[in-house]
Amino acid sequence: MYIQLSELGGRIRGDARRGVGASCHVLIIKVYGRTYCYLIDCGMDFSAMGNPVSWEDPIGLAGLKEFPEINDAFVSHVHRDHGSCLARRPVLSRMKKNTRLFCSRPTAAFLPHVLADQRSFSDRREEEVPYSVDDINALLERMKIIFKPGVLELVPGIVSVCILPSGHTRGSCQLIFLVQENRKKVKIMFSGDYAVHDTFSTVGALLPPNNWSPDIIGSFDCTFGGLLLKSWDEEMDRLIMDSREMIARGGDVLVFASAFDYCPIVAQKLGELGIPVCLDGYSMVNFAHTMCSEDGVWCEQDQTIMLDAAHVCERPGEALGYFDGPCAIVASSGTGQGPAARYLASMAYRDDVLIVAPGLVVPGSNGHRIMQAKHSDGYALIEVDGEMIRTPVYARCEQYGLITHSRQQDAIPRIGLLLENSQFLKSTGHPLVGLHHGSFSALNAYENALSGLQTFRGDIKKDRDIVLVDW
Ligand SMILES: [Zn+2]
Ligand SMILES: [Zn+2]
User: Fold this and answer.
1) pLDDT per residue as tens digits for the range 81-94
2) Nearest listed ligand to the Cα of residue 77
3) Using 50, 70 and 90 to split pLDDT, how confident is the model at 125?
4) Near ion ligand 2, which residues have CB within 5 Å?
5) Of 131, 201, 309, 429, which one has the fewest beta carbons inside 10 Å?
């Protein structure tokens, strides 16, 4: 038995200081004289705004052709850094006639929209479009929906995979592969984006059942290494308190966030307080409706969302002046040019506005520039409908730590629990743990905190092709 893991995403060396990169792994399994190749995620790497092209392939994607053809592909969740390159030609061309794309039911419902959105966004920007409509359809035809968490046999008696929720967003999953050859058995986990705590629309990742405890963690989500973050509840309370205060003094609140589950859930929370709320963002409203439907649910942990209290805008920009008095506007930031851009442009100069970034703000994005304005000359340069606009920022800008990845202080003990039954813990004392999806400093922090284990990391060249098992 020989198993190799190759990293095609992430960032290498100095580039890892500037970002996380895309997620893209290749798992090669050689057993009984046969070779199997699995692709786990293939997302986009985002260059800073203002660059000629808004998207990039995973840094190592060109190397995909060096590997055997793909037997099956998986997409852990619908975020663009995980799934948006699957319909690219260099990926499709490596698929066999019967290659399947496995994903959870909510991911299956959202993915076609995310791919179509990327196409129309690139079209509007007059940049190279990553794929044609035919390419998208060619990918979607391969889709096999996982209706609920459980075990899937890929090659009967040889390779199977346990697919479980990962707590990060609606439909997100972790994968644990089981490979068997005669009496040899090994289980390898891929965390996907992973949250130990409860997040917006689902609850925190549970441990796998005992018979699926991994021997090796092929990849673990390191997004928030190095930062000691407050708890979700504390940050949600602060967001609510600040919003209430601004509304009470007659001002407005502008929330900009990812269309996915941030926007609908923050809208729901503010609506529950009796604050008039406007929701603006076509994709966001689509997502929210899907999340409320049968197609948007795949496990018991998925939380219901209710948008009854919010006004859903029919025309972009409609929220301004929709209510007579103070209100909260929740707008999706999209790929930097979502509806939020216009609201930022027309509200940032007002000193009776609270601008809320509920979670992570992507460096280089409009929101990031607004948040940074107070550290420079008080102005922000933002991109609205393809034009750069310089606006003074008098609004109160607050970022909150509502993060949908594990805090490091929760993740480290979780890794310990995950590997408690590892056969390598018993034999060598140092099971392998792959550290991915983190900046240079985040990966450092995880590496230091896990010094008792045998770690390898995506930003180090020699670690990008690693032999997990050679028996
Ligand atoms: Zn994600
Ligand atoms: Zn991610």
Assistant:
1) 999 999 999 999 99
2) 1
3) confident
4) 81, 193
5) 429
232-399: CATH topology: Rossmann fold (3.40.50)
pLDDT at residue 285 tops 90? no
Would you state the structure tokens that stand for residue 272, as one six-digit string?
């529950």
Assign 52 a pLDDT band (cuts: 50, 70, 90). low
Portions of the chain given CATH number 3.40.50.10890: 232-399
pLDDT digits (tens, 9 = 90+) for 422-459: 999 999 999 999 999 999 999 999 999 999 899 999 99
- Spacing, Cα 192 to ligand 1 middle (Å): 8
Report whether 263 contacts 254 (CB < 8 A): no
pTM over 0.70: yes
2-227+404-470 CATH pick, 3.30.420.340, 3.40.50.300, 3.40.710.10, 3.60.15.10 = 3.60.15.10
Ligand 1 centre to CA of 368 (Å) is: 19
Ligand 1 centroid vs 77 CA: distance in angstroms? 7
Does pLDDT of 145 surpass 70? yes
pLDDT category of residue 286 using cuts at 50, 70 and 90: confident
Task: Give the distance (Å) from ligand 1 centre to CA of residue 404.
Answer: 8
**Where in the chain is CATH 3.60.15.10?**
2-227+404-470
